[in-house]
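Subject: design request, 231 residues
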């Protein structure tokens, strides 16, 4: 249920300028698999999400892809599955908001299947430090262990605050640091459970999200880190 991934499959129908702008995103490498390790608030690995790029195709004036994601617990047992979309044009890249649900105890191993609205986060190609970015809202209705559940969250106050190098087993990248606030609300059995988070994302231009971290009331809740990329 986390965040997400990119690389390029050349498409003859896309103009050379657009291909140059979008190439490198791991979301655009057909059949690629990306591993994002999930960590708890103490920094211990508690599982991983594997993203697989299933198809790359023309999307309006740009390139798009469809990907699936499977979350595995720390014993490597598949727990949840999902799907998402990515799109890139010469001006920006956009990733499914459902990939931005923060790491928190009990959520990664909760199986949620249902209908969700289509919502994307935008990453402009001319990103620079100090820039304010657009946020978004996401809603999902599902059933968890026989109980109806509604999930809503809104990302706001999204801003590029700096640049940092991030190195992992999968590679090294010079990333933009993006901070934002996240209002999270879960409704189950008529009980509303609101939560507010602060989050940080490390985004590599032309590649994709590399690392995330979230906190609540100053307490670290967890995060993700790209640890493997199979082309």
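Subject: RE: design request

Done. Sequence follows.
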């Amino acid at each position: 249920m986390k965040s997400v991934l990119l690389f390029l499959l050349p498409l003859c129908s896309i103009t050379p300028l657009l291909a140059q702008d979008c190439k490198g995103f791991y979301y655009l490498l057909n059949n690629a698999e990306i591993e994002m390790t999930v960590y708890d608030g103490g920094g211990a690995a508690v599982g991983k999400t594997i993203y697989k790029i299933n198809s790359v195709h023309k999307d309006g004036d740009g390139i798009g892809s469809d990907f699936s994601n499977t979350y595995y617990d720390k014993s490597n047992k598949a727990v949840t599955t999902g799907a998402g979309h990515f799109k890139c044009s010469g001006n920006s890249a956009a990733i499914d908001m459902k990939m931005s649900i923060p790491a928190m105890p009990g959520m990664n191993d909760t199986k949620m299947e249902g209908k969700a609205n289509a919502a994307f986060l935008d990453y402009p190609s001319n990103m620079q430090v100090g820039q304010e970015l657009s946020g978004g809202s996401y809603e999902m209705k599902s059933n968890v262990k026989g109980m109806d559940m509604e999930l809503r969250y809104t990302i706001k106050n999204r801003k590029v605050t700096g640049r940092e190098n991030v190195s992992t087993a999968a590679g090294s990248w010079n990333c933009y640091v993006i901070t934002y606030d996240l209002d999270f609300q879960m409704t189950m059995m008529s009980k509303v459970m609101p939560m507010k988070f602060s989050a940080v994302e490390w985004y590599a231009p032309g590649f994709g999200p590399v690392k995330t971290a979230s906190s609540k009331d100053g307490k670290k809740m967890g995060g993700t880190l790209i640890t493997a990329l199979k082309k």
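Residues 1-20, 108-112 have pLDDT under 50 and may be disordered.
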